[in-house]
Amino acid sequence: xxxxxxxxxxxxxxxSQHLDLTIPVGYSSPVAxxxxxxxxxxxxxSQHLGIYSSPVAxxxxxxxxxxxxxSQHLGIYSSPVAxxxxxxxxxxxxxRHHLxxxxxxxxxxxxKAGGQQVVDYEHLQNTAHRLRILSIAATQASxxxxxxxxxxxxxxxxxxxxHTMKYNKSTPRDAVSDRxxxxxxxxxxxxxxxWVENNLYTENDLLTLRKIDSELEGHPTPKLSFVDAATGSxxxxxxxAAGMAYVGKYYDKASYRVFCLIGDGxxxxxxxxxxxSFASYYKxxxxxxxxxxxxxxxxxxxxxxHDLATYKAxxxxxxxxxxxxxxxxxxxxxxxxxxxxxxxxxxxxxxAKTFKGKYFPGIEDKENYHGKPLGGxxxxxxxHLKTLVQEKKxxxxxxxxxxxxxxNVDLKNIKLSTPPAFKLGEKVAxxxxxxxxxxxxxxxxxxxxxxxxxxxxxxxxxxxxxxxxENYIECFIAEQNLVGVAIGAxxxxxxxxxxxxxxxxxxxxxxxIRMGAISQTNVNFVGSHCGISIGEDGPSQMGLxxxxxxxxxxxxxxxxxxxxxxxxxxxxxxxxTKGVCYIRTSRPAVPVLYKNDEPFVAGHSKIVKQSSRDEVxxxxxxxxxHEILTAxxxxxxxxxxxxxxxxxxxxPLDKANIIKHARECKGIILTxxxxxxxxxxxEAVLSAVAEEEGINVKILAVEGIPRSGSPEGLLxxxxxxxxxxxxxxxxxxxxPSPPTxxxx
Length: 744
Fold this sequence. Notes:
This protein is an alpha/beta fold.
């Protein structure tokens, strides 16, 4: 310890008053200078000045007299401290007044009376300017990007990452750390700049932005260790954040917080308001959504521009706590996030008034600069920003480590608690067995959850709710948010999420689903009420595009079970499959085809019926497989034999088995599906055999817009019934139909 000076610190008259310098084993001081001037009259019990595990460069208190209440103390814990100065901090008269420095909570080491943190606002502002400079440099190097959109959130990002958030720099996606979703993903350069500041990347790395061999893409993806979900298709990030927050509050029961930064332009998306409604309903007080209200959209000003009053009224109408701030005032932003942490039973919306291109001379708040590098104005803007940085030498950031813990979660090798329990031949709706499978899985692993959009009594997700209520999340009729919440719930491998609704309604959330694939999500989608076989409800309820839609998703697995046993096994397999999974469940009750111990593997088909005399390979799934089996009996009576194949998965398709059996059936394939022709089973089979000589494929599929009617009548009307199969097979094998008997 170099110097310790107390001046006029007399009259320490009570018991246990002390000045305490405690240096734990393994720590070296040194204390360069500690000066207290006129710190007299510390008259109550247990008053003390404590410095723990220095070094302390300088500590000065002037006129800090009359600290008269019990347990008043000045404490500095786990320095270093560059400088601490308190002037005229007298008359601290209430109980338990104290000065505490916790360096894990701030950068500067400054504290003030009352135990309140003193933040180095200048450092945060300087960091914001450096982030602006990095954003300009990166977009200039790539000759593309959004520097003005980065500039509007510079102070917000600085405060979030270098004051408010608690996370591990080395493992930012660990389960206990705070979460951050940049919903306005086009501002990716400033997020990357944060991690330059955190020394994960160099400034030279940042200059590879958007290059083909760089992981720093135009919009963030989970290829990066600090990104949970891909963003950039606007309006989606908040739902993902809400899913994370739900898991944190109700499953992990942890202290981590979730922050989502959205643009004012994307707040026109209905999915944003679906997410706000969800977050409010479930009292997600661990969620903070920050509106970057910078007034300007891509092509023109936003609808509300800087009408903060309307934003405030809207978010409050949705049940959120709202805080309006100047988004470029670090003091206001710090206070907003601190106040949000104290708000209970509702999420907080921080409404930040900002300006696009803030601190960019001649560019700030001007139109026609969206998505453009600064070009010839870049260098002068950077030089201007450098003049605003007050630090001669960059101050090292001290990041707050996460506190508390989260439960250990193991999502590997999840099995049904008991095998399927169905009888061969009994009629069971395939959708019903989805519910029984969920219960069996959750019995084994309580991190298996189901989400639904108010169709749980139709999809049978309600079976899980009845067995394990806490494992079910009702998302109501808001399919885009439903999908986003599921993606968020599955992040960081905290849950195995199954999402169900009518197959037709997933089309509304296709953008969220495709972004889920880019996010490397493992969410499982279950679409019931598929095809015209639902009957009287009519075409608005009939999922006829879903196979095509999910087949286009990179890496997706598309299950199409044809009975209750195969459906339960599909659910089990999906729980253990990486990437997006889709399970197509049918409404009608159909006979059980497989024994309860029948093994199933994705990409492996089943031969349901065969003989040495087969002339056609007929492929169907779900309802149409049963129509084919009915037709096979009638054809056999006519002396025509067909082989019947159940693909089980449409993607991956069992190409080898299809080709093998097609060649054993004279090279003739007939596909029958309760789906539109485009992108369905038939076209999947055509793609599989396209390069094979001597194989011909005929497709029976739904053509045109269907209508209401009985399931049997519709199957017949649209040419995918057993009757239609018989007719098609007869034509394929060139067996003329027997002459019709004349009626008298």
